[in-house]
């Protein structure tokens, strides 16, 4: 996808038609593309299109249990149905490939009724006739700056870990920023051919406050003249291996050491390329490229500092292909910012999207179709470099539900969902990557078993295996490819890859069978609870919740125990009179119950139990969707309806249950109300890390500093 980079026009550079473009890797779902937009700079083309994707979903529907004896009938039926999903595709490639790409689009564009392609960038005029001839679409130009700012606002709000701080030599070089609704004001340093500096105050209020003609095009153009190297990535490779001190004149070369009274260290650059005027020797390409990179990056960094200070802005973002994916450029700019401000390092944008109407829906990245942040080193990850040409892809799916912050987050701006950042913890990273690789055979078998009547399921499952394994191998080489690497992101990537090959709910039949079994024990469980004292009932309630949490088919230890027939205790249902609001997944993830399944289950329980029936009828027991389709939980991206109900009902206790939601995520989450985080540790490595044993219990009750704890018998409980 495409962040912008411009370069000086090279009229002698012919278009490259030698590449092949596999549609399942690059221009995906092109046959169902509905709208197009294109941004063409001096060197790079960024294409965006909106498509509709047909995908399978597992639907549950309640049987009619009123006409006959239904004791042996299943609770609900499961059917696979087709649904239409809206998806945005972003692709970045060099202008050298534009004619080949346009031919490819023309040959595969079959279901579109659009007559117009929106365009921005200087190259849009240059290639206007070619685009209209190839695609038979009218080129309609949009205001580039307006689209740029709206696009930046869009990704900052919708893609977690889109912005990051780069710290060279740190345990994790990339420190990612989570999404937050309050993104204004900020300063955007957009580095293309030149540099544009834009002050952004609101969604529609921004101005270009400055800029420079010395930018990415300068580095590319002068670099090509100095080294005879024509490709941008090759120039950066040269720079990463060079020593600028052989070309640059340093303070110590002039004064023999530091200039203490002015606070200038001896290693500081006094004059870029200063030694080349007097030295009687040839300089290496690597050293010249490194000196040039330092010269341009230092200039940009100083300009950014001056404009930020002038406009009293502390939030500064850098974007553009000069930045994206190139640690050597980010390091030099970061060094410059640190030198001139002695303050917090700048933030960089992974991708840059240009958009006109960004805030009508919530969106989520589809990891199955995105290429992620690549290393510039061909030696670091040869798998990624094997792609045809230089193509970057980002895919985003429009979500059914609008997602917002949980109103009870104590400080949404500092909330981090994940407990451990695997990109920082090498030992944990290697362990979890190994775990997910080891579990792959079981996931493939489960996927095939979930569709016994479809003979092609085995072939699709093998394609899933290949794709997810490739993702894991990419993340082993490039942990920051999709932002912070966490257990949650590994789980979400797996779910996305399963959906990619039409396995929307591999555990649907297991859930159906176990829900049927649990329902038969409901009345017995309630009766046994009613016979207990209040204190005994609370312990039984907790034991029941934890027993239910043990039955996790995603955990290897539990799966092995279950397959051996060791099912543990019967889960006890909680006393219904203390429940207030129950949130469950909107879509399937492992064997977690979904909102649709829970609605059917609650309806049947209400028919059996007058207390539950009364609670549902009087709206004292409310079932809502969480907006999540993950075994983990991000409290900054919850269903807007759920957030509204939480606010309206003045919820004062939140229970977060399960290893994914309470341990892998939210273990350190701070809420403005009382909270209870509870889980059974079903992984021996994690148990050891936490100082316990396999199947140890976490029961973490927290009270905000400004509140006094209340007794549980007077508090409405909000399980999540």
UniProtKB/TrEMBL annotation:
<comment type="similarity">
    <text>In the N-terminal section; belongs to the type II pantothenate kinase family.</text>
</comment>
<dbReference type="InterPro" id="IPR002791">
    <property type="entry name" value="ARMT1-like_metal-bd"/>
</dbReference>
<dbReference type="GO" id="GO:0005829">
    <property type="term" value="C:cytosol"/>
</dbReference>
<keyword id="KW-0464">Manganese</keyword>
<dbReference type="GO" id="GO:0046872">
    <property type="term" value="F:metal ion binding"/>
</dbReference>
<keyword id="KW-0533">Nickel</keyword>
<dbReference type="Pfam" id="PF01937">
    <property type="entry name" value="ARMT1-like_dom"/>
</dbReference>
<feature type="domain" description="Damage-control phosphatase ARMT1-like metal-binding">
    <location>
        <begin position="438"/>
        <end position="562"/>
    </location>
</feature>
<keyword id="KW-0963">Cytoplasm</keyword>
<dbReference type="InterPro" id="IPR043129">
    <property type="entry name" value="ATPase_NBD"/>
</dbReference>
<comment type="subunit">
    <text>Homodimer. Interacts with PKM.</text>
</comment>
<keyword id="KW-0378">Hydrolase</keyword>
<dbReference type="InterPro" id="IPR036075">
    <property type="entry name" value="ARMT-1-like_metal-bd_sf"/>
</dbReference>
<dbReference type="InterPro" id="IPR035073">
    <property type="entry name" value="At2g17340_3_helix_bundle"/>
</dbReference>
<keyword id="KW-0597">Phosphoprotein</keyword>
<keyword id="KW-0944">Nitration</keyword>
<protein>
    <recommendedName>
        <fullName>4'-phosphopantetheine phosphatase</fullName>
    </recommendedName>
</protein>
<keyword id="KW-0067">ATP-binding</keyword>
<dbReference type="GO" id="GO:0005524">
    <property type="term" value="F:ATP binding"/>
</dbReference>
<comment type="function">
    <text>Phosphatase which shows a preference for 4'-phosphopantetheine and its oxidatively damaged forms (sulfonate or S-sulfonate), providing strong indirect evidence that the phosphatase activity pre-empts damage in the coenzyme A (CoA) pathway. Hydrolyzing excess 4'-phosphopantetheine could constitute a directed overflow mechanism to prevent its oxidation to the S-sulfonate, sulfonate, or other forms. Hydrolyzing 4'-phosphopantetheine sulfonate or S-sulfonate would forestall their conversion to inactive forms of CoA and acyl carrier protein.</text>
</comment>
<dbReference type="GO" id="GO:0016787">
    <property type="term" value="F:hydrolase activity"/>
</dbReference>
<keyword id="KW-0547">Nucleotide-binding</keyword>
<keyword id="KW-0173">Coenzyme A biosynthesis</keyword>
<dbReference type="GO" id="GO:0005634">
    <property type="term" value="C:nucleus"/>
</dbReference>
<dbReference type="GO" id="GO:0015937">
    <property type="term" value="P:coenzyme A biosynthetic process"/>
</dbReference>
<keyword id="KW-0479">Metal-binding</keyword>
<dbReference type="Pfam" id="PF03630">
    <property type="entry name" value="Fumble"/>
</dbReference>
<dbReference type="InterPro" id="IPR004567">
    <property type="entry name" value="Type_II_PanK"/>
</dbReference>
<keyword id="KW-0007">Acetylation</keyword>
<feature type="domain" description="Damage-control phosphatase ARMT1-like metal-binding">
    <location>
        <begin position="582"/>
        <end position="693"/>
    </location>
</feature>
<dbReference type="GO" id="GO:0004594">
    <property type="term" value="F:pantothenate kinase activity"/>
</dbReference>
